[in-house]
Amino acid sequence: MFYIELKERHHEILEIVKREGPITSEQIASLLNITRSAIRSDLNLLTMSGMLEAKPKVGYMYVGSMERQKIADYLNAIRVGDLKSRPVAILETTSVYDAVVLMFLEDVGSIFITNEEHYLSGIISRKDLLKAAIGGGDIHQMPVGIIMTRMPNVVTVAPSEPVVEAARKIMEHEIDALPVVDEIFRNGQVFYRIVGRFSKTNITKLFVEIGNKLGGDWFE
Fold first, then answer.
1. In this structure, what CATH number is given to the domain that contains residue 114?
2. Which of 56, 67, 130, 157 is packed most tightly, with the most Cβ within 10 A?
3. Is the model more confident about 73 or about 16?
4. Which tens digits make up the pLDDT trace of 203-220?
5. What percent of the chain has pLDDT above 70?
6. Does the structure show a pLDDT above 60 at 69?
7. Residue 65: what pLDDT?
8. How is residue 217 annotated by DSSP?
9. Together in a domain, 41 and 113
C-alpha cells in the first residue's frame, strides 16, 4: 500500500464502487458518462493503493473500510503491557539535584517517585525541576518529595488497558508519560506498584510499526 493524493474523480469512483459494488469498469464509466479507457489509470491507481479490489468476471469492490478496520482491530488487541518501557523511579528522599542528573542521563521528561515501600507516591516533570532550580533553594538538599505531584493526582494506567486508552489519557491530561502500575490491596487500602512506563515515545514506535505492517512506503 502507498499514499496517493485523491482527485475529485477518484472520490467519485470510490463512492460509486461503495454504493454499487461489485461493479465492472464499463458500468463505472457509464455512470460517470465517460469512456472506460478514460478511467483505466484511475482504477489501476485505486487498486494498487488498496482502496479497491478487482476480481475477474466479478468487478471492482471497495476495501478501503476493511483496511481501516484492520488498523482498529490491531490497535484494540494491543495492551499497554505489550509496549511499556522500563520505568525511571526514585525515592521521595532523593535530592532535586540528583533527580535533574538522572533525568538528563535517562533522557526522560518525567520521573516517578516512590515511598520507602517502593509504591508509587508521586511524579516530577522537567517543569517541576526547573521551578525548584530557579526558586533559590538548595537543590542539593531539597528532596523531590517537596515538589512532586502527589497521589492521587497522578494519572496511571494498568498493563491490561488498551494502548488507545493510554494514548487518550496522555492527550487529555497533556502529560509526558504514564506510570504503568499493578494495584496492590492491603488492609483495606490500595497501593500502586510501578511495573513500567508508557510515554509518547511508545506511541510513536507503535505508529511506525503499524506503518511497516501496512507498507513502509507510506513514510517515503
1. 3.10.580.10
2. 157
3. 16
4. 999 988 877 776 544 434
5. 90
6. no
7. 57
8. G
9. no
State the pTM of this model: 0.69
63: which DSSP letter? -
Please give the grid coordinates belonging to residue 98. 540528583
pLDDT of residue 215: 57
Provide the residue range defining the domain that includes 124: 80-199
Cα Dmax for the chain: 81
Q: What is the grid cell recorded at 134? A: 530557579
Long-range contacts of range 59-63, CB-CB < 8 Å, 24 or more positions apart? 59/21, 59/22, 59/23, 59/24, 59/25, 59/27, 60/17, 60/21, 60/22, 60/23, 60/24, 60/25, 60/28, 61/17, 61/21, 61/22, 62/14, 62/17, 62/18, 62/21
Cell numbers for 81, please give them: 503491557
Same-domain pairing of 33 and 84: no
Count how many domains the chain has.
2
Determine, yes or no, domain membership for 116.
yes
Given strand 110-114, what is the order of strands in its sheet? 89-91, 110-114, 120-125, 149-150
Higher pLDDT, 49 or 111: 111
The residue assigned the cell 478496520 is 69
Domain CATH code at residue 22: 1.10.10.10
Burial annotation 162-186 (CB, 10 A radius, 16+ → b, else e): ebeebbebbeeeebbbbbbbeeeee
